[in-house]
What does this fold into?
Amino acid sequence: MTISYYNGNEYKNRSELSQLEGFLLASAVSSGIMSPLVYIGQAFEKQAIKEHANNHLYKDTFEKISNMSEFKDKGVTVVPAQFKSFAFPDEANGRNAFFNAKTKEVVINTDKMCIVGTHEFGHAWNHLHS
It folds into this structure.
């Protein structure tokens, strides 16, 4: 096993067989977790509608988090999904949001999903510190 360092973090390189086993296990677990989401999707949508109605309460907190120097210094940016609506229709319509670790972008409809955006900043934080 070799050890490499990147951005202040230590990584232990695995064998190709170990990587394949991990990928297959993660795929199996993901499919088991994702299949029930069809049944709970309606409950999530109802909750999201409630949050949209109170978005103004969360927007200030979301903007404070997005302006934290920790994220700015590491290059994390917020990309309003309205400008990427063709590629990300769910995000543009306020039904979803995501953090793209490769581009360090939080893609979100800031008019509708600010509370979800704080969750996405959690993913950004994990990415920067793991």
